[in-house]
Amino acid sequence: MRELQGILARLADVTVVIVGAAVASRIRFDDATQVGFYSAFVLFAAAFALAIFPAFDVYESWRGRSKLALAGQVSLAWLVVQGCALAAMYSLHHIDSVSRLWFTYWTAMAGGLLLAWRLIAHGVLARARRAGLNVHQVAIVGPGTQCDAIVRRIDTSPATGFRATAIYNTSPDELPLASPNMTMLDTLEGLADYVRRNDVHEVWLALSLADERTIFKLVTEFRNDLVNIRFIPDVRSIALFDTSGVIDLLGVPAINLVASPLSSRALVKKELFDRLFAAAALVALTPLLIAISIAVKASSRGPVLFKQKRKGADGRVFTIYKFRSMRMHTEQAGTVSQATRGDSRITRVGAFLRKTSLDELPQFFNVLRGDMSVVGPRPHAIEHDDMYQKLVTGYINRYRIKPGITGWAQINGFRGETDRIEKMELRVAHDLYYLAHWSFWLDMRIIVATVVRGLVNDNAY
User: Fold this and answer.
1) What is the sign, positive or negative, of the torsion defined by CA atoms of 251, 257, 258, 263?
2) What are the pLDDT digits (tens) for 361-374?
3) If you ran DSSP here, which 8-state letter would residue 237 be given?
4) Rounded CA separation 42/20 (Å)
5) Per the structure, how many domains does the chain have?
6) Which of 154, 235, 262, 398 fits as disulfide partner to 377, beta carbons 3.0 to 4.6 Å?
7) CB contact at 8 A, 379 and 310
């Protein structure tokens, strides 16, 4: 459902860009024959909108966030798109032929429409959430009086789509107000069972800084669950924390204890780079992609591309693309056999592609679609995820950001078969190091290292 909403939103944006240009042309030009000249400009802008808008979080959920912030993000994204489209026209030596008045009309009208449909959709969603649709359930942990305060805030902001459904009272002496729709819990085990059985999306900790033992127990309990855990402390305690981890939630400060390790600004920068890099790579590598496709098709019967379900950011499942490197074969349901050294299933062409990592090139399409990043933890088969999640501490946190074509673990030699649990533990340790130390320049270092020494590796077979 969420993917369908994203596709519809992108189609709406492209439609708005084109309609805005058409209306501006009708206003500016009397002769309709002049309009055709601007078609390339409009198509450039539509293409850039598809690539750039996701980098500004305009398709992410704005549940509980400011409308003003939404308007600012959309406006900035549209101006960046128009700047890129102008640069494209300049590179084609047609910028002098563009009517400045038409461009102004188009930018203003399309920008207004981009904001208008989102604000209308925001209002429709708000009404739906008030009616009990599209709701995120929240379990609140803390003393009774503090839980009551959070519940009142949620109840007075129904348009945000949060619904308090359970309270774990950590101070029996402070009884929360009774509510017929609220489940009262008195043990950590009861809370964990309730969260898992009822598909609770959020656990909010209304605890004091002295409750670090309780916080640790809760974070440990849900370490393998994709549940957002948020700490809502006393305002006076905020100065003790790195404010980059503090967000505004229903008008009160909340600290992300278990959430994406990258700030919104970092994610925008990373997403924008990913889309532009992937688009440039696909254009530059087109002859090579065609040559590899022909070689794969000639090497053995079967499709050119290998497709498999993998988990992406927040555990969302997507289809990953690779050049097929093995002969067609069948496996038992629920099992995926890793390639081993001297594997008879691998074709001669496939062996070369795997050795040089050229079989991974189609994943630039995954990056362009927004499923993956250029740099990040490598995604594994879903069957392997289910196994290693139970065996390797911190494994689930690899999916707090988008998986990558290459990563810190890969350039440090942790590629290929993981025939021992220790290999996966080391790979995950490198992935978690990357998450904790991410920077744009670290991504650049990993990309350069992948090209220079990472294409050929003894562990890739």
Assistant:
1) positive
2) 999 999 998 899 99
3) G
4) 10
5) 3
6) 398
7) yes
